[in-house]
Design brief:
The chain is α+β, with helices and mostly antiparallel strands. Helix content is about 30%, strand content about 30%. It is elongated and about 70 Å long.
């Protein structure tokens, strides 16, 4: 992937755990690598097809000056998020924040942290079988659209399906959506759980009735299995109510374990 480099931008600011660091300040040095596609900008010579690295330098300077944190880790994290959210064409950003004059009574060149952050693609399953089912699903979409660290890219149509697991309940309305997010999987899961709670979901029975059910179906090509989270969703390949709406928005998405597309998995049901 193409990138723009910003090397060793010096900023005088007030970050540090010790009181004198926040009182007297010191020099911080920030380097950045901005990852994006530069082919169009290079061919047509148009600033609108890239990012203004001069403006990014001013954003870095303002963020580092305007905030006061204990940790340069926090400086880097907040700065990466700000740059990515304010520049939609960026795919990811690498940052190094150096502290050349850290208060350590030893001979050293600098202390620094490096991080790399970027947008990830997740596919979510949505379901509801209590109350106004369609409104519950639309509520989830609206709430995700409000989040600065998430971008809803596509939403499938909603389909009515019979209940799965426990059958003595009403039919579900199901759908899927494609999401770009800065959140790692567990933080995304936490946000989805909060949305379910906000919609009034009560967890008193496995596979029971619910106002809103939000599942991470896939996240990039990641494979995760622990006591909180399994990606890809453990039974997605068995579920018509997942594969049908998912095939509408991502028919060629490949399952990283079975190495088959969503369309192929749906055809095998």
């Amino acid at each position: 992937m193409d990138k723009i480099n910003i090397k060793r931008l010096e900023v005088f600011a007030y970050h540090g755990v010790l009181p004198q660091e926040k009182k007297h300040g010191q020099v911080f040095v920030v380097s950045a690598e901005l990852y994006l596609d530069l082919s169009v900008a290079g061919k047509i010579d148009d600033l609108n097809e890239t990012v203004d690295y001069g403006e990014i330098c001013h954003v870095i300077k303002a963020f580092v000056i305007d905030n006061r944190f204990d940790l340069i880790e926090t400086v880097a994290e907040g700065l990466a998020e700000k740059i990515l959210i304010e520049n939609p064409c960026l795919k990811k950003v690498w940052l190094e924040v150096e502290k050349p004059n850290a208060p350590i009574p030893l001979n050293f060149e600098a202390v620094s942290v490096e991080i790399e952050r970027g947008w990830h693609v997740a596919y979510l399953g949505l379901g509801s079988n209590l109350g106004d089912r369609a409104e519950h699903l639309r509520f989830a979409v609206r709430e995700l659209e409000k989040m600065s660290d998430c971008r809803v890219l596509e939403v499938s149509s909603f389909i009515s399906t019979p209940p799965y697991g426990y059958e003595e309940q009403g039919d579900f309305l199901n759908g899927c959506l494609k999401l770009e997010t800065l959140l790692p999987p567990r933080k995304l899961l936490d946000k989805l759980l909060r949305l379910e709670n906000k919609a009034g979901r009560i967890r008193d029975m496995r596979w029971g009735p619910r106002t809103l059910d939000l599942d991470i179906i896939m996240y990039d090509d990641l494979v995760v299995s622990n006591n909180r989270l399994v990606i890809p969703h453990v039974e997605m390949h068995k579920r018509d109510f997942v594969l049908r709406p998912l095939s509408e928005i991502a028919p060629n998405l490949v399952h990283p374990i079975y190495n088959k597309t969503v369309s192929e998995l749906l055809g095998e049901l």
